Amino acid sequence: MTSIMTTSKPITPTRTPSAPGAAQVSLRGVDKEFIRPGRSGETVHALGPIDLDLRRGEFFAVVGPSGCGKSTLLELVAGLSTATRGDVTFEGKPIHNRIPDGVGVVFQEDASFPWLSVRENIAFGLRRIKIDPKERERRIENALAMMGLTSFAHSFPAQLSGGMRQRVCIARTLVTEPRLILLDEPFGALDQQTRLLMGDEVLNLWRKTGATVFLITHALDEAAMLADRIGVMSARPGRLIDIVETGWPRDRDSRIVQEEAFGAITARLWRSLRAESMKAIGKPEVEP
Amino acid sequence: MNATSSGGSNAGWFSALKLIALLLVLWQALAWMVGDVAMRTPLQTMTFTANLLTSPSFWPHLAETGRAFGLALLLAVVIGLAIGFLLGINRFASDVLEPVLVALYSIPKITLYPILLLMFGLGVAAKVAFGTIHGVIPIALFTLAAVRNVRPVFVKTGRVMGLGTGRMISGILLPAAMPEIFTGLRVGFSLTLIGTLLGEMFASQRGLGFMLMNAIGLHNVDVIMALTFLLVLFAGSASGLLLFLNRRLYQRA
């Protein structure tokens, strides 16, 4: 592939950058096409070709215009969907419409089960995993404590705020101790302050668990604050047109939004994205 | 929290009592208007019902209806849930077969009764079959819609957790669809009861339906009113119980 992707140098790192590990997820020449429902049976090229390596233990975010195939990309990595062409591998093993062990997904929509208590929701994540009862209890208590849900263990989702319900979903994923956590716009439905705070919690989890995090988001500031690297996608068919290394230290929190480099990163993301976003809404940018 | 829920519960009971009182007043007024050629007052009906319940000849009829209805309901629930689930999880099959189910549901079931009688003969089997065909389709249709309306993110979550078909149904689809399925069960319960009683009214020598038909023939308004009262009490209590269970088990908030 003659890639239009460019890997940039870090933008004015202000502290020691985190050290990413070896590739854990690998995408090679990945394309996804859909057949449009209806009589025409027209083929829609939704995504690709995409080449990408996710390094073990890194925090990778993807931003892109609406409808560019960000969520499709996540579904391919999660094994919820199969690539039309190309290979997706997790820890060296190909993913063919099969959910790999060690992968947890948190969706944008509230996926907490309303018929179960918070504790039961979290325990549900362990349904398929054979572990002894003590270990099971330890994991549930850990997940409850990590997400600040211990005092709400016996509440039901309907009694919680949107942010807390999303924490329940994250805890249900954490309890499986995943090595790769996929987040599909998990804070999309939350207000700005809650999103910043949830961002801090996700960073905290990322540090504590050592898992690789793959975040899909439409919010440039969220990507700039959370990620080690940010992939910028083009309008449909979504391709990676830029990868920005933020150079943030591993030990960071939402206060980095005050740093000068934060502004530079978001500005760069917007420069890459503006023309693509215009294309996505059907108004191609005209050079002045 | 406790005080609030106890207050809410008291208000609920008070509303229910008010509704019962209103229905009794309307019943009394209607009985006065139409006269005793067609109706009895609530007090007369309740007195006669108490006498009927103490009569030894009543219980074999009740047992016969209970047996036929119990079997018919069991079959309607099992078959209805199975059809509903199978079609609900298969979009293509439900698109093709749902209109067929609706068309079958719109057939007046009474036209099928002679065929059922020829198939099963005069006895409990025909009543069970007639009760079942009344209840099975609404249960299947409600279950189908309930399963199809389960939020896709729940199913995706189950897939991410690697749940197989059995665990997906028992752990996610069934509880997520349960509130709507309960509505189907309530409707199915009432229609199965109607079907069983109709079966007894038209071709039977035992059961509450037979008693009712006999009373109509003899113009025995006391028996007609007492049986109707008992059936309303039974159907109303069962429906209320299903509603309570649904709230208790699946709509916790």
Automatic annotation (TrEMBL), chain A:
<dbReference type="InterPro" id="IPR003593">
    <property type="entry name" value="AAA+_ATPase"/>
</dbReference>
<dbReference type="InterPro" id="IPR050166">
    <property type="entry name" value="ABC_transporter_ATP-bind"/>
</dbReference>
<dbReference type="InterPro" id="IPR027417">
    <property type="entry name" value="P-loop_NTPase"/>
</dbReference>
<dbReference type="GO" id="GO:0016887">
    <property type="term" value="F:ATP hydrolysis activity"/>
</dbReference>
<dbReference type="InterPro" id="IPR017871">
    <property type="entry name" value="ABC_transporter-like_CS"/>
</dbReference>
<protein>
    <submittedName>
        <fullName>Nitrate ABC transporter ATPase</fullName>
    </submittedName>
</protein>
<keyword id="KW-0547">Nucleotide-binding</keyword>
<keyword id="KW-0813">Transport</keyword>
<dbReference type="Pfam" id="PF00005">
    <property type="entry name" value="ABC_tran"/>
</dbReference>
<feature type="domain" description="ABC transporter">
    <location>
        <begin position="27"/>
        <end position="260"/>
    </location>
</feature>
<feature type="compositionally biased region" description="Polar residues">
    <location>
        <begin position="1"/>
        <end position="17"/>
    </location>
</feature>
<keyword id="KW-0067">ATP-binding</keyword>
<feature type="region of interest" description="Disordered">
    <location>
        <begin position="1"/>
        <end position="22"/>
    </location>
</feature>
<dbReference type="InterPro" id="IPR003439">
    <property type="entry name" value="ABC_transporter-like_ATP-bd"/>
</dbReference>
<dbReference type="GO" id="GO:0005524">
    <property type="term" value="F:ATP binding"/>
</dbReference>
<comment type="similarity">
    <text>Belongs to the ABC transporter superfamily.</text>
</comment>
